[in-house]
TrEMBL record:
Keywords: Carbohydrate metabolism, Isomerase, Signal
Pathway involvement of the protein, from the record: Carbohydrate metabolism; hexose metabolism
Xref: Gene3D superfamilies: 2.70.98.10
Reaction it catalyzes: alpha-D-glucose = beta-D-glucose
Signal peptide: 1-21
Entry superkingdom: Eukaryota
Annotated protein name in UniProt: Aldose 1-epimerase
EC number(s) reported in the record: 5.1.3.3
Length: 353
């Protein structure tokens, strides 16, 4: 009896210690020369991206907080991987194979970025880390988590490519049931540096001639509309803020990429340039859409170094499946079947001249 009790205590203690170790939050740096990226396994979140300008001056071009504890109370999704389904699901519900699934309503009666505790709010497991190469993180989402069906195995790899590229590979497998999956990286960029003010003078070109219009709660109507002749047209490079007289709140809309992603082939999404620093960012993906967001809903937020980020302090380019596709049969499906791999790849290329 005594020995059995002792063995049980040892097993319980070992299990508790292993769980604590598995849930330990850390910060991991990837670096090659002057190019460096810091990531935490809390929310698989990008904490910083440091780049040289045309004169070699280094700046952090990503908005964020000064401590991990602040990320735990974050409502902006700074730098996080969001899911199980990124963006919005209208009415916080969907029907799959004849069954209605109700989800947490955390955004004006809708579900945003996976619910009240999405992938941005959990501690991921570190599978592999090499400082000058990559960081791979995994997470197991259980059947019924935030109302979604099926057990889901998720993996995200951040990798440095050559001397000036950052790759993000998001993978998922449903282990037992069909389930919607749409992961996205929600990094806030300011190529002038995170303390440089607004991004209205950044120029951008988006290789997308259509958008999915939304209602007053930012839920897609189901239409797919051309951007020509509207403030949403970025087919030719222009300043982000150049049409704010027509669109005073800024941009928060899904663009339909002109070469539709099929999950295998890359397409160029965008080119963004900040003239003062000379920094340029190019983005490629294999996804069919990209959410262009100009931090319209960013309140005065105390960030890294005590700097206060204001409205339009950054832009986001979130490559993705179309928002609310679970409720729009005419949109590309996000339903992942058991045995089929979800694979979402992004590649950023940074230069300065």
């Amino acid at each position: 009896m005594g020995k059995a009790y002792l063995c049980l205590c040892v097993l319980i203690t070992a299990f508790a210690l292993s769980c604590e170790a598995a849930e330990k939050i850390g910060i991991y740096e990837l670096q090659r020369g002057d190019f460096s990226v810091k990531i935490t396994n809390y929310g698989a979140t990008v904490l910083s991206v440091v780049l040289p300008d045309r004169n070699g001056k280094l700046d952090d071009v990503v908005l964020g907080y000064g401590s991990i504890d602040e990320y735990k109370n974050d409502t902006t999704y700074f730098g996080a991987i969001v899911g199980r389904v990124a963006n919005r699901i209208g009415g916080a519900k969907f029907t799959l194979n004849g069954k209605l699934y109700n989800l947490p309503a955390n955004d004006h009666g809708n579900t945003l970025h996976g619910g009240t505790i999405g992938f941005s709010d959990v501690v991921w497991t570190v599978e592999s880390y090499v400082k000058n190469s990559h960081l791979t993180l995994t997470y197991h989402s259980h059947d019924g988590e935030q109302g979604f069906p099926g057990d889901l195995s998720v993996m995200v790899t951040y990798m440095l490519i050559d001397t000036n590229k950052l790759g993000i590979k998001m993978q998922a497998k449903s282990l037992n049931k069909p389930t919607p999956v749409n992961l996205a990286s929600h990094t806030y960029w300011n190529l002038g540096g995170h303390t440089s003010g607004d991004i209205l003078s950044h120029t951008i070109r988006l290789q997308a001639s259509r958008i999915t219009p939304v209602d007053d709660k930012l839920i897609p109507t189901g239409e797919i509309s051309p951007v020509k002749g509207t403030p949403y047209d970025f087919l030719e490079r222009r300043k982000i803020g150049s049409k704010f007289t027509e669109l005073p709140d800024g941009y928060d809309i899904n663009y339909v990429l002109d070469r539709t992603g099929d999950g295998k082939h890359f397409m160029k999404v965008a080119t963004v340039h900040e003239e003062k620093s000379g920094r340029k960012m190019e983005l490629w993906t294999n996804q069919p859409g990209v959410q262009f967001y100009t931090s319209n809903m960013l309140p005065d937020t105390v960030g890294k170094g005590g700097f206060v980020y204001k409205k339009h302090a950054a832009f986001c380019l979130e490559t993705q499946g179309f928002p609310d596709s679970v409720n729009h049969p005419n949109f590309p499906s996000q339903i992942l079947l058991p045995g089929v791999e979800y694979r979402h790849v992004m590649v950023y290329r940074f230069t300065a001249s």
